[in-house]
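Final report, results section. Input specification for complex C-07:
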Amino acid sequence: MSDDLDPLRRARPDRLQPDDPIDPAVLSDERERFMSTIDQTGTAPGTDRRTPSIYPRLAYRDEAAALEYLTRVFGFREWRESRMEMPTGMLAWLEVGDGVVMIGRAGAEHHDLSSPADAGATTCMVNVYVDDVDAHYARAAAEGARIVMPLEDMFWGDRRYEALDLEGHRWHFGERLSHVRERLDES
Amino acid sequence: MERSDAEPSDAAVIAASFDDPAAFATIFDRHAAVLLRFLVRRVGPDAADGLVGESFRIAFERRSGYDCSRPSARPWLYGIATNVLAKHRRAEARRFAALARLPRRPGGDPPPAAVDDQVIAQVDARELWPRVAATIAALPPGERDALLLYAWEDLGYEDIAAALRIPVGTVRSRLNRARRRLRDVREPEDGGGEQRSTHSEDRGRIGP
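Structure output:
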């Protein structure tokens, strides 16, 4: 094919700068994330979405960045088909285990909810039990989470750590010590 | 394509994925790299981060709507990725602005081992590129989508129509309009009346 668009074809960015390859790790990471989405979706996407009796809504200045952060750093799974995108902001539902958090934009017009980044203070902490808190901690730390309490065994029977997300919401991730022992015995 | 006949078509894989969602991984493996490169061309590597995954998640969720009479899913995936890009118009504008400023490698390139046609073509493209980039950036999104699927992704009219879910006649008219705008950019130079870019500094007369 040769015509008046040839200059445009030749000017394709990767032809102008052929020394700018894509990191293959990008695709394998994407594949892994994609497969984990598939695995949790089951055979009938969009069905079997039970909302728990209580689930919090957290507000962010930049809810899209928060969605990216929470899925990447803390491994939450978005109910992608539930996402609502509007000019005034996005709403997303994130699942972890049998729990759900909803995230949206901060502001007076959004239920008057504030981001800690605007309020200057954190006003709640979300507690999350995970299957393997050691792995969860390792991932979050590797992805750059702000760890504010290190991973420790606590007297009440949990192994836990705490982290702040990108706008300062506080997250407490824990696992029962009995579960930790079972897990370690198995391996 | 280069797949052997023994391998099932995309349509067959997608049909199988209704019962076995994990089968959809094959669609990812076949097309993810192409889609990633497409997304990077359009918005740059930073903004493209995560978009290929988003495109495939959307494709997976919409797989029941796939037209199984089409053996290759690629146009369909290009269409989904194009929709994903629509949310990143600002990133795309920044990308084209950055590309327009693409330096002619300060101090000059290391001299090419062999001066062949391709090298000449690249130099030629660099000369022209700032104005072309600005024109593309200023195109209506629908024209830009069609034009770049055609010129950069090598999709035919039929495939572009399938990707963008528009009639073939609309593809043709969008491409014609985009071509006219691009021709207007080049004409003064080709006519010889205008000096060929005298400076590395590209003056303001870019864009329509």
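The longest strand of chain A covers residues 89-96. Chain A has seven helices and nine strands. This concludes the modelling results for the funded period.
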